[in-house]
């Protein structure tokens, strides 16, 4: 009888260990807790439900399109005045890197904003996985849209 109980206890412990191991192996999804989920064809962009500023000047059409592509309140706050300061871009970049860091990635700008490079600092993601994480983090922090505008509009040094 004692052997039977020890056997049952051993099986229960083994099952509990497997469940804990399975939970720990599930990759984290930082974009699930982002300020706004990615939009689909059936949902309005979060920007559409927020009062859009009246952009003026030669870039007003591009700024209106950029505003419509934003997913977060941070992104809208950054663009609200029609320009992006280096401090604002630093904040967006930090949010993007925080999202990437969950997966062991870190991003750095290369060629004066002409591109970026995601570096694997821990773990082992495939190129496809890195690309997916980069795209999701870029969209859900508005880094992709805002950095493209920021680096395009910076004066040449």
Task: Give a verbal description of the structure.
Residues 39-50 have a biased composition (Polar residues). Keywords: Membrane, Transmembrane, Transmembrane helix. Residues 34-54 are annotated as: Disordered. This protein is mainly alpha-helical and 157 residues long. The chain has one domain (31-153). 52% of the residues lie in helices and 8% in strands. The protein has six helices and two strands. Strands 1-2 form a two-stranded antiparallel sheet. α4 runs antiparallel to α6 (143-153). The longest helix is centred in the N-terminal third of the chain and has 24 residues, at 2-25. The relative contact order is 0.14. Mean pLDDT is 78; it is low at 28-45.
N-to-C series of helices and strands: HHHHEEHH
Binned strand content: 5-15%
Number of domain modules:
1
Sequence stretches where pLDDT stays below 50 over 5 or more residues: 28-45
Q: So what's the overall shape?
A: elongated
Cα Rg: 22 Å
What gap, in angstroms, lies between the N and C termini? 82 Å
The biggest sheet, with number of strands, parallel, antiparallel or mixed sense and barrel status, is: 2 strands, antiparallel
Task: Report the strand count.
Answer: 2
Task: Quickly give the structural class.
Answer: mainly alpha
Biggest sheet, spatial arrangement of strands: 1-2
Give the helix tally. 6
Helical amount: 40-55%
What is the average of the pLDDT values? 78
Keywords: Membrane, Transmembrane, Transmembrane helix
């Amino acid at each position: 009888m004692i052997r039977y109980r020890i056997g049952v206890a051993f099986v229960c412990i083994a099952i509990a260990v497997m469940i804990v191991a399975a939970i720990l192996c599930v990759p984290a999804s930082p974009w699930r807790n982002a300020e706004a989920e990615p939009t689909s064809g059936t949902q309005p962009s979060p920007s559409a439900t927020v009062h859009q500023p009246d952009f003026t000047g030669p870039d007003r059409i591009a700024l209106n399109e950029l505003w419509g592509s934003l997913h977060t309140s941070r992104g809208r706050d950054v663009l609200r005045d029609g320009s992006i300061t280096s401090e604002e871009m630093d904040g967006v970049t930090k949010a993007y890197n925080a999202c990437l860091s969950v997966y062991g990635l870190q991003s750095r700008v290369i060629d004066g904003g002409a591109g970026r490079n995601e570096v694997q600092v821990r773990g082992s993601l495939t190129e496809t996985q890195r690309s997916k994480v980069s795209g999701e983090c870029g969209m859900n922090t508005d880094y992709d849209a805002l950095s493209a505008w920021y680096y395009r509009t910076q004066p040449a040094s």
